[in-house]
Amino acid sequence: MTSDMSTVAEQGANAIDYRFDNPTVLTPPxxxxxxxxxxxxxxxxxxxxxxxxxxxxxxxxxxxxxxxANSSLKQEAARIAAAHAKPLxxxxxxxxxxxxxxxxxxxxxxxxxxxxxxxxxxWQRRYGDCKAKTVLLLALLRExxxxxxxxxxxxxxxxxxxxxxxxxxxxFDHVLVRARVDGQSYWxxxxxxxxxxxxxxxxxPYQWVLxxxxxxxxxxxxxxxxxxxxxxxxxxxxxxxxxxxxxxxITNTTIRRGIEGLQQEVQFxxxxxxxxxxxxRQNAIGNTWQTIxxxxxxxxxxxxxxxxxxxxxxxxxxxxxxxxxxxxxLPGGGFSxxxxxxxxxxxxxxxxxxxxxxxxxxxxxxxxxxxxxxxQWSHKDDINNRMFGRAYYRAFDIYDGSxxxxxxxxxxxxxxDATKAKRDNGRIALFDxxxxxxxxxxxGKNTDTKASRRVPATNEIDWTADxxxxxxxxxxx
Length: 477
Hints:
By secondary structure, the protein is of the alpha+beta class. The chain folds into 3 domains: 3-37, no CATH class; 50-221, C8orf32 fold; 232-247 and 316-440, Jelly Rolls (Sandwich), CATH 2.60.120. Helix content is 21%, strand content 27%. A hairpin with a 2-residue loop joins β19 (383-387) and β20. α5 crosses α6 (130-143). The chain is globular. It starts with a helix and ends in a 37-residue tail after the last strand. The model has no long low-confidence stretch (mean pLDDT 94).
């Protein structure tokens, strides 16, 4: 039970009494990690440890994943083995088969949904829930000689602090497979779209998982590190070479990873190119777009990213600053200043503050009017800062007839202590929250047009690659 309950608990011979007289509403500590949302909770469990749950569930999955002697699954496994020589390729083929050929259907049964359907039954009826798909995948992997185990996880994101809770199966809402190939662990989720191969990390960033083993396993904490690739990149190319008064040709590309990217894959995969084009023409033409000429979408399996590109024309919102001068705020180029991390006096001041993991990147390239010169252009300052566990980065460059900007933001620490929060509260006044303004002055003589670090244009590099320059090589304090 939580401390707010233990302080009022009265232990009797056969019961525990909790007596409240018009109790006040409890408010979770502001901006604290999710585990501190746990308030006024009493739990009971018949399990003395997590190993007991692991031992109980392991034979359910082990028995259900044993195909019959004449099972057609054996033929499927033989077909996969004949087509693929490497164990990882075989595991990937087995996963794709489960993802693609067996529909996902949730089987709730009023909470009594703990025993998985057998592998043969699931393969015969071609549908199943996460347990059924996991069992089917385990059966195929066993036939292929790939070591694998079922693992209970929590998809709802409420597993922070799970190690402080009483052992209970209800703490999990999903099960998937962890395979071992050539000494490396891979996560395989049969409920995800068939574009998701075995991965060194699960698609959802679990904190605590429970492997199901005959001997019984303890909760296992998965390590966390700042994202190595942005979960979203937004690219804008504005071709304004025709002049300030003419519509520009605009190319807008978004690259989404993770669950958001998969949601887009599910949404767009069934649509034809003509249907996509029609939908965007009907819904997107307005402030940004005057015309939409083309819409292209694909899911890049290697990059594990959904890539949507819209091509068309639109008016550029140049500000007329007088005397022939113009200015433009680039989309996505500014940062809002972070809020102070403070709590009410009655809340625990020593608790850490929480940052939801995120890594975003905006890249904008403006192809400058052909009648202008590079020295007539200027831009706002670059940014390289870190505050409250988040890195902020912005860089400009004027090169090859274009003005380029990249702006990135990444969570470096999920939790920051009260001391660091207090320090950064005092630094907020110094935060550069300027929009990404670029300016043209026909009389300007800007000689400082060379960036300290070359900023690539939207079309110069592969922005789905692992090493895109969305952050400084060394982040400021």
